Amino acid sequence: MSVKVGEKAPVFSLYSSDKELIALENFKSKKVLLLFFPLAFTSTCTAELCAMRDDISNYNNLNTQILAISVDSPQTLNRFKQDQNLNFTLLSDFNKEVSRIYDALYEEFSLGMRGVSKRAAFVIDKEGTVRYAEVLESAGDLPNFEAIKQILTKLN
To answer: Tens of pLDDT along 24-71?
Structure first.
């Protein structure tokens, strides 16, 4: 199943790096930038999430909550968040259910690893409708953050 622009975003609940159960429905008064990333502590993922950290004021000004999801455990994500001083929510999709629902899961990644989140970005508006969807096949590529910011600006 792939998630398309104009459709309602599939709802979910996942544990955060702080071991809190976080539901997408908790953010109905805000726009959500949902980012899937393959693995904590890898070079491209670290660069992407640190760029988000450094640009957080722009997303805050756009009334946007960033939720970043990987298949790493909450404990691994907690360490990653601390090490990189990340200032947004990291969610563990350890059971790979949400990545699969959003069609953002590599069945076969690299080094024989199976079930790793693809790099992907979804903008969800205050009503829970997907306004932007980008799922990348290459883990080395990054989402089009300029296009994402344009969509978020239009939704203000």
So the answer is: 999 988 999 999 999 999 889 999 999 999 999 999 999 999 999 999
* Whole-angstrom distance, CA of residue 133 vs CA of residue 138: 16
Catalytic residue among 39, 45, 52, 152: 45
pTM (two decimals): 0.94
Active site residue 45: yes
Q: Which CATH architecture has domain 13-154?
A: 3-Layer(aba) Sandwich (3.40)
Say if strands 89-92 and 64-70 run parallel, antiparallel, or are unpaired.
parallel
Q: How far apart are the first and last CA of the chain?
A: 29
Please report, for the chain, the start and end positions of each structural domain, with discontinuous segments joined by +: 13-154
Nearest to 126 by CA among 68, 69, 65, 56: 65
